[in-house]
Every structure is written in structure tokens, then in C-alpha cells.
Amino acid sequence: MKKSMTGAKMVVQALKDQGVEVVFGYPGGAVLPIYDEIFQQNEIRHILVRHEQAAVHAAEGYARSTGKVGVALVTSGPGATNAVTGLTDALMDSIPIIVLSGQVPTFMIGNDAFQEADTVGITRPCTKHNWLVKETDRLSGIIHEAFHVALSGRPGPVLVDIPKDVQFASGTYMPKEKARTAHYQPRVKGDIEMITDLAKAMAKAERPILYTGGGVINSGPRATELLRELAALTGFPVTSTLMGLGAYPASGKQWLGMLGMHGLYEANMAMHGCDLMINVGARFDDRITGRVQDFSPHSQKAHIDIDPSSINKVIHVDMPIIGDVAHVLEDLLTVWKAQGSKTNAEGLSKWWKKIDEWRAVDCLKFEQTGKIIKPQHAIARLEALTKDRDRYICTEVGQHQMWAAQYMGFEAPNRWMTSGGLGTMGYGHPASIGVQMAHPDALVINVAGEASWLMNMQELGTAIQYHLPVKQFILNNERLGMVRQWQELLHGERYSQSWSEALPDFVKLAEAFGAKGIQCADPADLDDAIMEMLNHDGPVVFDCLVEKHENCFPMIPSGEPHNKMLLGAASTKDAIGAKGAVMV
Amino acid sequence: MSPLKIKKGTSKHSAYDLRDPNSDVVESHTLAVVVDNEAGVLARVIGLFSGRGYNIESLTVAEIDHLGHRSRITVVTRGTPSVIEQIKAQLGRIVPVHEVHDLTAEGASVERELALFKVAGIGEKRVEALRLADIFRANVVDSTLESFVFEITGTPEKVDAFADLMRPLGLKEVARTGVAALARGTA
What is the rounded CA–CA span in Å between residue B19 and residue A190? Predict the structure, then answer.
């Protein structure tokens, strides 16, 4: 039996049929019919954010921490343009979200109507795909298709632009099962010959490394299990990109820590010195490779990626395997076991000896002395006091983000939400709201810098309204720390516009919203203050006053290879040449 | 270096890539892209080229299957082998793109372009223009006492050559369709 209903009702029905529980949004003229339908039902919760950018980041946080599609609903014109940063963020980090935007009525499109913007035009390069729906009959089918596209293959953001007359008009509802999906079915199984080649290379390798990325997490829990099985079976060392933290447990004995620009010494040295690199769901990002010409010069490289365009884009690889991480690892393990393969024990034990020498450098060591809190110490204490809890960590972007990645340990996937590819300041606060919505009883902390946090601080209102006890842990150095660090190293210590003047009193700010504010400036008080934050049942803004001029190390200077890391302040003089200064 | 080892037709990647992937020699490739004939699909394809800094030397697009809602976009592009491979892979990622064929790499193909030339002149020049048009098998599709419009079909090189000859004879205006191309044989 065909069901006829209005477009607005279809939207809500389609979301229900897709199992959506939460929508993050902000109403406006062009989405009023949809909001009217939301008003008349109780199955889907709507979370009213304070800015559309935050709706999209919250949807991202929800998606990342659950593996499900996050949903945002915005109005036309400014609602849609405010969503652009979040869409681009989700595209860069391959996060499945769907943004539903209102549009002026079809008969007014192109007339510069009030709150009109060419939303599909503007968002075309920052979505995986987008649709302008011109007929109500097609609306529900397109929404179902949009969910399919967002989750299939390499996940990503999609947008459905819905003119107001399409929302008012009635049409036939197409159920989820009948929606068009056959045209978009990216392959998930890897080439078995190439997988067999990789298994052979693994048996021979003397200095192997598993270089894992966000693809492991996006592939789902099975991929994480298989990666851990593979690591256990082979004894290979494991490192991960910023995106992939948690796939292999930080407490695992083969864990080398994060790699890349601010990665650990042992991880980067192992990448540089390996003879077999197995890239599992990572994309040779420029934060990872450093100088491409000198990237891991003596290794055979295998690359498992679901997106063919990631293969040979930056680094030419010897064993490209196009497929989903879980499917490929499953086949790899089958081949490995079926052939009774054994690793090169002698080579591997020498390799581990070498790695242990690098580990002994203890590149993250720091000393907390004096009366000022070191940012590393603040993160280390936060880690110590929260690691045994059911915990989710978000971050903003900058030094604090790198310190969190270095000093916090992640034992499971989907526990770490950070803006990697786009590097969006203002991401973490709304993302923490999305995460807390998905996991109401968990501890959700946003590790922030004061400058990043101010970019979306208005979301404190959202946290208060919905009783979301998110903890905003702000490392306040009154500086744009990472910018300041680069100015120190690259621009003759001319600190152009990189300090935060006229900062608010964060405690009063929190209180003005109805949240709890805590300030801590003394290392001796830090643990008590953190415990006070954790014990408070409600949102907290934690203003942690830290050392103002601390730099983030280790660091691969831009334009340099992995083995030219800077380990601390002493090694920074003239470390970056003119060529490196051009890179970001 | 190993190629991607994907059988022809099973992927949007070319399997027969025996060129040096690290070569910095710039090549011209003709790509045939079969897409859903839906609003914005051409913008997606050309937006990919401009957004990622690829070249478009020629572009033609038209619906080829009305019932199946399919259009065929023929793009002539230039780049090093690795850039060409990236272009194909990036095209393959676009949701309404169904097939990407590298006609230059996948074996022999035929390429044709149609062009219209308006040539104005009188006396000896006019006669010469008509004589050359005959040699090039161009048709006269419009004529006044002082001008011709020639229609010519052929490879881009042939059209270029004809343009070179018409220039001193009073060439006023040119319209070219861009290249349409098909693989030879039954494949």
C-alpha cells in the first residue's frame, strides 16, 4: 500500500525508519514545516544548538562515538552556510553525517529570495554527495539514499536541500528497502593475490611496522578486533595516526604511540627505518609523511584503503589493496594461517631491540617544577584520574590537542573525537555535546585551549538546557599556542596576533550560563580541582592556567623527514629552513 | 613498481598501466566518463578538475541514453602518469559517475571533433578557401556573396590544420564541439 504524506512528515518518517534517535538543529523560515512535524512526535529528540556549525560538529561527535550516521537540521541561507565548516570537517575526516537544509520554495530559487543561497552549489565540494529535492515524491527515496551514501565505502558527509514547497506538498513515501542504492556499492573485498603477496612479505620482513589510521575505526568494531589479532599473531609494532587512536590499545606492549609531526620518537624512527610498512586505513597525510622524498626510504609499502584515490596519491606503494579494512584483514589472517606462516623471529627480535633503544629516549618526559602548571602535567593528571572510567575525549585544535594525543591512552575505538584533517578550532565543544547525547552516562571531556574554546563557547547554553554534564578542560596559556610556537621557530619570535587579550573570566562565564566554573593555577591543587570537576553532576568549565610559553615536542619540522625530529627546546635553533617555512 | 592489478572492467582504475608512475613527462589523455544525467553532475566533474588543479583541454557532454538517464562526458586532460591516475580515481569517487575509461591507455580509439568556421572574403581568397575546404572534405553550410560557414569533422589535429589555413583567408569566427571519442573494436 502506498503511503501519501507531506514532505515534512516524510522527512521525520524517513529519519525514524533509519533508526535516528537524535537530530541536532536550529529552526528557521525554510524548515518550519519540518519543525512542525518534529513538534508532533516523541520518537526523535531534537537538540537545539546555538549555532548551525555546532549542530554539524555535534552530529560528527555523535557519529564518531557510535559509528552511526549523525544528523543535523538547518534552515536555508545562513543556516546552510554556517554548516559548511562542519561538512568540510566531516569530509576530511571521513565522518558519516547527513545535513538536512531548508531551501526557499522551488518557484523562488534563483531569484535572490530572502535567506536564499545556492546550497548544493556551495556544499558540492565539501560533501560526498548532495541533492536538491524538487519533487515531494522523490524526497524520502533521496533521504534513504543519502544515508546509504554517507555510510558506504569511505564514509562522509551528505546534504539534502529541501525547498519549502516540497515540504508542504504531499507525495508518496518510499520505504527504506526500495530506495536506490545499487548504483553506489564500493568494493569491500581486497584483491586476494595482493593480500597473499603481503602475507609473504610479512613472513620475510625483518623490520615491519603496522601504520594504522581512521579507516580501522570507520570500518567498525570487527576491524579493531582483527587488527589486534593480527598484531598479536605477528608481534609487529603498531603505530597510529591521530585519527586511528584506540584501534590498538595504548596499554598493548606493541604500541609505539602516535606518529607524525608531533608523534613519538620511537614511532617516527620505526617508520623511517622499517623494511615493511603496512598502512591499514590511513592516507599518508602530510602531517604523517614529512618530506615525501625521504619518507621511509628503505621499505616495501602495502596500503589497505577503501578509497582508490588514496592509493599512490602521496606515496607510491608496492602493494595497493583496495578494500574495507575488516574484509581485507579477515582475508589476510586467513591466508596467513592457511599458509602456516611464521614471522622472521631473528629479524624481529633485533628490530624490537632497536625500538627499545628509541623508546629509552623517553621523548615525552617533562618535569613539573615550580608553581606554574605545565600543560603536559595537566593532561597527564587528567589521564591518571580518568583513565579507568567510561570515558570519551574530544579536543579542539592546537597544542592541547597534540598533548592530549601524546599523554592520554586510548584502549578502545570511538573514544577519541578530534578534528584531524581540517583542524577546526571550535570543533571540540559541540562535538562533546554530540558524544554526551549518544552516551548519557559516560564521562565526556573536551580538552581545549582557551582560544579554540571561545570559537564555539555559546554551546554551553545547549549543555545546560539538556543537562549534558560535559567537562570543558581548558588549558589556558593566554596564547594561540601552536601559532606562537611556529612564530618562535620560524618567524623570529615576532608574536603577531597570537596572544589572547581581553579573555573572559571563565569561572564567571560558566556561572553566567548556569554551569560550574573551576579555576586552577597551582600544581598542588590540580588533582583536587580535577576531582571536583569529575564529581560535579553537570557541565563544568575548568580554567587551567598553564605555563604560557611551553612548546609541543617532539616535532618534525616542516619540510624534514622522520629521522630529523626535534626533541626539545635545545634542538630548535635554526631547525627549519626557508623551504620548510613555506609549508604549513 | 607494481600496477594496481585490477582486471579491466572490474574497477574504475585502469589496470594496464605499464608506464613509469614516477615519470614527470606530461601526457595528454582522453577520458570517457559515463554519468547519471542529473542536475549538477557536470558541475561535480568540472569542479573536481578546478578544485584539485587538473587541466581540461577539451570537454564535451551530452545525454547518450534517454531511458537510462545516462550522459557521456569526454574530457581531454594533461598530466604526469600519476596525476592522470589520480584524476581517474577521483572521478570514480563521484557518486553519480558510473564508468571512467581512459581511452588513451585502454587501447586504440577514434577521436572526432566537429567545428564550424566562418570565413569572409572576396575574389581569389574566397576561391582559395572553397578549394581548401574541398580538400579537407569540409561542407559549406551557409554562404553569402562575401562569406562561407564551413562544417568540418575530424581529429583535433585536422581541425587545427584547417584553422591555420583559413586564418590568412579571412577567418572570422570558430566554434568547436570538443572531442568525442570511442574505443575501437567490440570492447
Answer: 23
How much is the ipTM here?
A: 0.91
Q: Is the peptide bond before B96 cis (omega within 30 degrees of 0)?
A: no
Specify whether the CB–CB gap between A474 and A394 falls below 8 A.
Answer: no
- Please name each of the domains of chain A with its CATH number: 3-178 (3.40.50.970), 192-360 (3.40.50.1220), 375-545 (3.40.50.970)
Grid coordinates standing for A436? 554526551
Which residues of A lie closer than 8 Å to B, measured between beta carbons? 120-121, 124-125, 128-129, 132, 149, 183-184, 187, 191, 193-194, 307-309, 311-313, 316, 318-320, 322
Average pLDDT per 10 consecutive residues for chain A, totaling 584 residues: 90 98 98 98 98 98 98 98 98 98 98 98 98 98 98 97 98 96 94 97 98 98 98 98 98 98 97 98 94 94 97 95 98 97 97 98 95 98 98 98 98 98 98 98 98 98 98 98 93 93 97 98 98 98 97 90 84 63 69
Among A322, A418, A329, A394, which residue's Cα sits nearest to residue A95? A418
- 3-state SS class at A166: helix
List CB contacts (< 8 A) between A309 and chain B.
86, 89-90, 92-93
The residue length of chain A stands at 584
The count of residues in chain B is: 187
Under 8 Å between Cβ of A418 and A395: yes
CA–CA min distance A142, chain B (Å): 13
- C-alpha span between B22 and B20 (Å, rounded): 5
Smallest CA-to-CA distance from B129 within B152, B105, B113, B112 is with B152
Distance from C-alpha of A401 to C-alpha of A545, rounded to nearest angstrom: 16
CATH superfamily of B27-102: ACT domain (3.30.70.260)
